């Protein structure tokens, strides 16, 4: 990906994590039997601020830069509303299945949550957002990003420990003066070709935000693409949303 994040974007990004119901665009709702809606272009709430990084000996730095991009892009989706659901058997009580036939994945979402797709400004990516009807900082998003020929599997980014450390340390700005967002890695693991990462972000004077990510790679027949599933909730909302969001992220599957 061509764009790279600037240090300015690092401190701003955690502040724009959730969609505002007042800014939701209006449009016709899709029927519940319809699986995939067309993506539409959305304005970025960050204006023209863009992400950024570099590359040591070409490949290494590009990997690090890409990881920072995907980390921030997953957080900054604008408000987007639509509805596209698919029926499935053996769904846990209180959940339903969202299936994207075009991009070949499915995920569990709580009943009553809103769904929408869009394209973040400045990114050659597709993002799908899932969030409660009430305005909250809790949500789940799926970012699909094209990869270069160097990336053929998740290990192309390094092992899960190195990947997680690079991602989270790249988000941390607690060491600058004045201190910015503090990022802390909680856990990471690799399973069946997927990377799973848990970490927190906290702006000075604000509540801590918990994030769960699942990352996997799949081809669309032409190029490999990275799927980044990011679930997040505020510390004070953990009792209400943590279990649901963890279940959503862990339920992501390619089809």
UniProtKB/TrEMBL annotation:
<dbReference type="GO" id="GO:0005509">
    <property type="term" value="F:calcium ion binding"/>
</dbReference>
<dbReference type="InterPro" id="IPR016123">
    <property type="entry name" value="Mog1/PsbP_a/b/a-sand"/>
</dbReference>
<dbReference type="GO" id="GO:0019898">
    <property type="term" value="C:extrinsic component of membrane"/>
</dbReference>
<dbReference type="Pfam" id="PF01789">
    <property type="entry name" value="PsbP"/>
</dbReference>
<protein>
    <submittedName>
        <fullName>Photosystem II reaction center PsbP family protein</fullName>
    </submittedName>
</protein>
<dbReference type="GO" id="GO:0009654">
    <property type="term" value="C:photosystem II oxygen evolving complex"/>
</dbReference>
<feature type="domain" description="PsbP C-terminal">
    <location>
        <begin position="93"/>
        <end position="254"/>
    </location>
</feature>
<dbReference type="GO" id="GO:0015979">
    <property type="term" value="P:photosynthesis"/>
</dbReference>
<dbReference type="InterPro" id="IPR002683">
    <property type="entry name" value="PsbP_C"/>
</dbReference>
């Amino acid at each position: 990906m061509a764009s790279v994040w600037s240090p300015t974007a690092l401190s701003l990004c955690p502040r724009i994590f959730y969609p505002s119901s007042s800014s939701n665009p209006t449009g016709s709702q899709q029927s519940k039997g319809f699986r995939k809606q067309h993506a539409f272009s959305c304005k970025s709430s960050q204006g023209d601020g863009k992400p950024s990084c570099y590359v040591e000996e070409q490949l290494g730095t590009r990997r690090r830069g890409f990881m920072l991009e995907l980390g921030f892009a997953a957080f900054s989706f604008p408000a987007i509303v639509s509805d596209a659901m698919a029926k499935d058997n053996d769904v846990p009580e209180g959940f339903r299945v969202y299936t994207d036939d075009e991009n070949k994945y499915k995920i569990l979402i709580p009943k009553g949550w809103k769904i929408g797709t869009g394209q973040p400004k400045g990114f050659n990516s597709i993002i799908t957002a899932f969030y409660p009807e009430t305005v909250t900082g809790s949500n789940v998003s799926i970012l699909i990003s094209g990869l270069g020929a160097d990336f053929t599997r998740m290990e192309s980014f390094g092992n899960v420990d190195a990947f997680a450390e690079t991602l989270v340390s790249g988000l941390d700005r607690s060491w600058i003066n004045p201190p910015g967002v503090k990022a802390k890695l909680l856990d990471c693991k690799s399973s069946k070709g997927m990377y799973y990462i848990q970490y927190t972000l906290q702006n000075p004077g604000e509540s801590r935000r918990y994030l769960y990510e699942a990352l996997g790679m799949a081809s669309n027949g032409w190029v490999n693409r990275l799927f980044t599933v990011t679930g997040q909730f505020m510390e004070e909302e953990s009792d209400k949303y943590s279990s649901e969001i963890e279940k959503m992220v862990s339920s992501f599957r390619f089809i």
